[in-house]
Amino acid sequence: MGNNIIQLGMKQIEVWPRDQKVESRGDPTIRITTFNDTQEYHPRLIAKILELEENQRLRKRYFRGACGTKIHHLEKWISSEAELITSRAKTLFRHVLGCEEAVVELSWANVYRAGDYCLPHSHVRSTASVVYCLDTGDLDPEDELSGRFCFVDPRLQNCCQDQEGCMTTPLVPEMTAGTMIIFPSQLVHSVNPYNGMRPRITLSWNINKNAMSGSPLPVEAEKE
Questions:
Q1: pLDDT range class, residue 1, cuts 50, 70, 90
Q2: How much is the pLDDT for 69?
Q3: What's the mean pLDDT in 111-120?
Q4: Where exactly are the structural domains of the chain?
Q5: CA-CA distances (angstroms) from residue 168 to 78, 154, 194, 208?
Q6: Of 17, 56, 70, 107, which shows the fewest CB atoms inside 10 Å?
Q7: Overall pTM > 0.85
Q8: What is the secondary structure of 69-138 as a DSSP string?
């Protein structure tokens, strides 16, 4: 992988740290890695997202089951931290797909508050999707799956442990702050209802090998 450098304040941070490991998780098409230098960029990036969440013009909230509050287009945030983590997502895409190009079709942050969740869905106009965990939020001692990201796709063997083609067992990868996961955009995935008080924050990218024509968002969303 490349070893580019991004300047964060007085520090230079490697886009892809040496010896960064990428492993499969539950299926060969699902790959995961966890970064250990998050103290260098998480605090400022979280503060930036919470600041943007307060902007009525920039945030987008559809309904409670549509992944909380969204702030689209990381590339427009004027944030070196967002640039760093986007570069890492693109590097992971190139590594996993064995290609030289990685074009972000759409990027966004999700801020989950108590009661927010994400209905099962797939992503269109995209080859692979990347999700990055900034803050897992509060743990719920009475519900260990609160706010957990999971795959619920009958095409995944791990989801069909009782009968082939019948989704009976969600695949729930372990994700902590700093974890990045990549998977085919067509896989059905969801986020369980979140019960915590501290905001649960993730970043997402839909990525292709080549740029696509047209807008990735409905016209009304682009005008927000």
A1: low
A2: 97
A3: 98
A4: 21-209
A5: 43, 8, 21, 31
A6: 56
A7: yes
A8: EEEE-GGGS--HHHHHHHHHHHHHHHHHHT-S--EEEEEEEEEE-TT--EEEE--SS-SEEEEEEEE---
